[in-house]
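no rush on this but wanted to send it before i forget. what follows is a protein written twice so to speak, once as letters and once as structure tokens for the fold. mainly i need to know what kind of three dimensional shape the backbone takes. thanks a lot i owe you, the record is right below.
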Amino acid sequence: MATLAPPEERSPEERPPAPLPGESAAQQRAREFEATWDAPKGLLGIFTVIDNIPIANRYMVTSFAFFIVGGLLALLMRVQLARPENGFVDPHTYNQLFTMHGTTMIFLFVVPFIEAFANYLIPLLNGTRDLPFPRLTALSYWTYLFGGIFIYSSFLFGLAPDGGWFAYVPLNLKQFSPGLNMDFWDIGLSVAEVAAIGAAAEMIVGILRMRAPGMSLNRLPLFCWAMLVTSAMIIFAFTPLIVGTAMLELDRKELTRFFDARYGGDPLLWQHVFWVFGHPDVYIMFVPLVGVVSHVVQAFARRPVMSYSLMVLAIVATGFLSFGLWVHHMYTTGLSPMGMGFFAAASMAVAIPSAVNVFGWIATLWAGKPVWRTPLLFAIGGLVVFVIGGVTGVMVAATPFDWQAHDTYFVVAHLHYVLFGGTIFPIFAGLYYWIPKFSGKRLGERLGRWHFGLMFVGFNVTFLPMHWTGLQGMPRRVYTYPAGLGLEGLNLLSTVGGVVLTASIALFLVNLAQSLRHGEEAGDDPWGGDSLEWSESSPPENAQFARIPVVRSRHPMWDQATLLPVPDDDPDTTRAARLLDHAPSRWRGSLVVDVLDGRPIGLAHLPRKSGWPFVMSVGFTLVFAAALLDRAPVFFAGAAVTLAAIVGWFWPLDTERTAIDEAYVDEALADATRVDEQAHAHGDPTDARPAAHAPQDYRPGAHGLALVVGDRAANGYWGTGVLVVILLVALATLLASYFYLGDGPTPLPDGRHAPPLAPALWATGAAVLAAILTRVLTAACDRRRDGVRRLVLVALLALWAAFAWLVVRAYRAGEFAPAADAYDSSVLALLGYAALLGIAVAGMIVAALAWAWRAPRDPRGRGVALNTSLVSYATCAVWLLVLGAVHLWPRVA
């Protein structure tokens, strides 16, 4: 067990500040608390800060910069199409423009900006101090930034992606697209996708586990509900896309043949994989803005949103139904009438929950007394535009109409009405609503109204004529068109609208710059909002909630006289709120609650700063650069950097002293005693505040909360559960591809036999034995048997290493040739995935062993072991499914 050095031997960050003359213990504790939550400063602080607010600010600025660049690319396209047979840009450049425009808006702006919004707002809305994994927050940002730079660096080499933001094959296979253009897209996009999934995993755990006491699920703000559903959708939509882009890149390098029809592949497989992501992604962009609009509408209607329960159910239903629509992008590919009928019905059904949201907002405004300020103007303007897009969406959901409108500018118009109305207008509504909280300054109301008017008019002038150009037969993605088709006036009108739309964004930037410099002070609650973020200062303090609020209502700022504990509160709630009043003071801690009712169950330890997320992102980027350039030295350099970052991230003996140290426990208990004595001396025993402590086995004491860092209540355990879901979704994508490429009941090509079974059975024995030993490991962790834990981890390390080796042997025994056959490519994907999981589990076991040997009594080490156990079970399940698909099913089908 690590011990705390004497005060004179500690670093300046660890050393407690000396008491000031006449300062009480409570005042000193508050000063220590503020110093603990202060973000690192200076040049080094740029790379080591992991607090949610600085990272969210960077996220928003970076993604909005990509939005501006993507908009300028669209403006260049409109200039090219302003008149027929224009020579402003050549066909190849136009392909690059529309590819990068779509890629930027979908992958580099909307989803990252929404996640940045959530990074900032969710702790404020939930009444907590940070997200559960601050280092993951930083890792997601740096990975997203490097991924975006990676894609845009292609312009420097004249190799910008030019195969469409949808990357259809076979046109994007190596034989038809031989340059590195689409490799930049494929690999850079993978980096950005990893960032999105990491942020989504953190949102799920943060929303479910880190809330103010009393905030049950039926009191959760609607934006939090929307982000919870969105994050789950990201897990199930982005994971198949990562698998698909990996398959595409392997095909482009001619190592596999998933999509090459000459070798048994199928180009339509790519469309299925892509649109399983692509159509849910429309709702991934829309659903969070349902939450934003709901907050804006109820704040300016001066009443709670109508039918909270129906609004939540509609959000959940939208997320669920969105995964049944992808095939309506593929009506012209020769599908069966029955299949098209099913997906047409699903495409129309998704309009029902969206309509529930729309009518809920209308009813709220009707029943309230709306105040027409800029945020509400953008919300209602977006509502009008989105409804128009929804109507045309029902039209293209009908198969006969879609056959006529497919790949015309009618679809371009529909897409932009849905996305602009469902995302861009609400994003600006949210910016005008929450920038006063972010900055402490109001945005100018007059310029804001001009911004709205120009954007609304400019958008409709740009995209409304495209409905008619599409119906007149103008195909999308063409760089020019001949004169005399009646398209000249409509295209010129769309270009004029594009200029007006661009001017509206420029006006917003002017308003923002002017307001941040000379704007009116916003105060803490400029709009009279109902949720917890308006209880804090503008901008919020570093810790956001030095005093944890107690929630008794769905609208605490409207319904509660105080956010502090009152005698009627549950004793556990009162204890937790008093416990965390400017505490812990020398390390970062925040409350963990029960998922359903918001009952306090423990205290989470949060890291203070770390440069390892930045280092790990650099390693990721080097690995992906090596994949682009086919350079082994670059790959090994990236792998070495990534490995060093992992070691640093999980190193057991952290230099930052935590609540686990026994000396800190002693100090916390002594501090609690002093506060109790002072409170009783002044005749106010209700003000006695117990300290955060975890004596002996770190279970709850009579006057404290447990530190949830080493058991199944820990955030890390829940985060690992989300990781397991991601791994299983990836497996489902690979299995679906394997069977899709097959012909008949079995994927085996004619004349082929099932792979040899013996090596696979040896791997199965290793996996099953590892699963049994994993159960022994969890029992040892639960019973605090550290010696047994070490021995079992050593045995598991040997078993999973042997498993990976045996899976490789099983693959080699089959004499597969993935570069010459789609079936062999599928087998390589499945067996390779299982082997990689075995190696990953072995790596996690090494980390768990480091904790077990270097700090055996530290409960965080038990937490690492429990997390490893989840991945161990998942890897065994993955292998059993792979065994059944590759080795057993062909023998019995």
